């Protein structure tokens, strides 16, 4: 039986460009390349200043060929056999591929789809790790919930213990239910429902969790998220810790949200969104949970709609508490009024997790009579550092559209402006050389 439940994807997969089109090296090298013939007709000639293009490779230069021959002779003198060199070089050359730029720049990848990891998984059964493994859909040759993150439930029966291990720069544990202790390379801590703690890279990456109270279902439950897939993709191991182990107590987080509510209440307005970002003293610039992970404790009051937003990070949303009637609508595009086109509805179920795909617009609705809580875990620490999180809120985007603007630096510079900049820099260089 599958542990994960795919939702309807009537909204379609992530829209991507046509597939990449490889072509042979011989085809490319048979063409004469020059600054005149390689440019689209009419484009270069319209430019108001001359821009010099040079062929990047030097192998056609006879002087460099002579240098290569001399190098080879020296290698032979050092005992390197010509056959070995030829075989290795040909092997390296056989791996090189080139693609036509416009059709290959946005390659077809499997979409990251909407899936849920239901709470029933950790509410019954023996002590165990219950992975939210979507590696078949990505695909990856290692367990992964998204390209960078792996999430799991950990169920621990009262009186039991279980080890968890990850080769990761960051591990986060949120206590869904119960209380207990966790032994790590950095020391031993206690935890109870609603607490969250993060661990850096360590010698073993192993923790031992023990439950002393199991709450309503006779076993404690943890929500465990790591960046192990990111490290697997890079082919690296975490050897250096980038932050110290950090604990967020439930009471501290709730008090922070309450302080926020009180502040705004004094102004007589009801906030649409009451949430606190969880930061770490080691990440003062990104203001994130760790340098890779990002989290938010977000509440939504009864009858409230939190309008759509989107970001480039994936969100693995833990529904901390929700009565029936609380849900997220998500989809890939907005219409001109800022409504999500062909949305997928995901209902929040207390203790369950769902995937919000990167880049998708998502809006939260609470049609119940109680405040609902959600704790998204994202790889947004990394995106924030890279300046690529690109979080956008629907009302800003609709206003931009009405003003004829498309946000994003790539669209802010026209071809004419770019040409002017190039000419200005060339003139500046000429002036400097003249002086
Ligand atoms: Fe979000």
From TrEMBL:
Coiled-coil region list: none
Location of the region described as Disordered in the Swiss-Prot/TrEMBL record: 1-49
The organism's place on the tree of life at top rank: Eukaryota
Molecular function (Gene Ontology), one example: dioxygenase activity
Name the record gives this protein: Uncharacterized protein
Source species of the chain: Pycnococcus provasolii
